[in-house]
Amino acid sequence: MKPMELALTRIGNSRGIRLPSELIRRHGLENGLTLEVRGHEIILTAKSGDPKLSWEATAREMATAAEDWSDWEHTGSDGLDQIAWDEPQAKEAPDHRKSLRK
Q1: Are 59 and 69 spatial neighbours (Cβ–Cβ below 8 Å)?
Q2: How far apart are the first and last CA of the chain?
Q3: Cα distance between residue 25 and residue 20, in whole Å
Q4: Secondary structure (3-state) at 25
Q5: Is residue 79 a contact partner of residue 96, using CB atoms and an 8 Å limit?
Q6: What are the two backbone dihedrals, phi and then psi, of residue 91, each rounded to the nearest 5 degrees?
Q7: pLDDT averaged over every residue in the chain
Q8: pLDDT(102) > 60
Q9: Cα-Cα-Cα-Cα dihedral sign, residues 75, 77, 79, 80
Q10: What is the pTM of this model?
Q11: How far apart are the C-alpha atoms of 59 and 37, rounded to whole Å?
């Protein structure tokens, strides 16, 4: 396909371009675009129409990624493990920081 000149169109306080509908259909751009800047080039690609991952698929991907979550280990001392979650809560939450100072 030969180069196509596109004019910038005012969209509120921004500027945008209009793509011909035939180009949108041919390249499957109905779900939107992904924009990437590489040096002096702007690359537009079709946005993936894949649905979001299920919780199970997300957990599987996280497990295979072997991510390091050790930064979150310090949350064990936040006192939440000392709250009786099965009992009705008082209208005002107790100050659990006192028990952490011991």
Answers
A1: no
A2: 73
A3: 9
A4: helix
A5: yes
A6: -65, -35
A7: 81
A8: no
A9: positive
A10: 0.42
A11: 31
